[in-house]
Amino acid sequence: QVQLVESGGGPVQPGGSLRLSCEASGFTYNYYVIGWFLQAPGKEREGVSFISINDGSAAYADSVKGRFTISRDISSDNYKATVYLQMNNLKPEDTGVYYCAGDPGWGGLVPWNYEYWGQGTQVTVSS
């Protein structure tokens, strides 16, 4: 059973930083993708970044390039991994619930590609 558990959200001032974590377990191989998605108030869920657990290749939405960095640590224990989203120079428009999601395929920045979802963690950027 795949489980994704996010942590690390909270309030932060504009220009500040946060690091989100997503603990992934239950996959039976390392060939999967973890993505981060933002659901801002009143808006649809949108892709922020994703990373291949197998080779570490990653991509970002234009809105976060140069500010956010995604990375992963792979555990030797049954294909578990932790994916981090380092968010720097945060802006008010980065506010919302951040979800991590898992896909056994190629992932991408579109939410409907992803089969497994975490519960989300709230990030609020405000002065």
Can you put this structure into words, describing what you see?
- By secondary structure, the protein is mostly beta strands.
- The protein is built from no helices and eleven strands.
- It has strands at 3-7, 10-12, 18-25, 33-39, 46-52, 58-60, 68-74, 81-87, 96-103, 116-117, 121-125.
- The strands form two sheets. Strands 2, 4, 5, 6, 9, 10 and 11 form a seven-stranded mixed beta sheet that branches. Strands 1-3-8-7 form a four-stranded antiparallel beta sheet, with no helix packed on it.
- A hairpin with a 6-residue loop joins β4 and β5 (46-52).
- The N and C termini lie far apart (40 Å).
Strand content: over 45%
Kindly name the structural category: mainly beta
Taking all residues together, what is the mean pLDDT?
94
Task: Please state the overall shape, judged from the principal axes of the Cα atoms.
Answer: globular
Poorly predicted spans: none
Radius of gyration: 14 Å
Tell me the major beta sheet.
Answer: 7 strands, mixed
- The ordered H/E elements are EEEEEEEEEEE
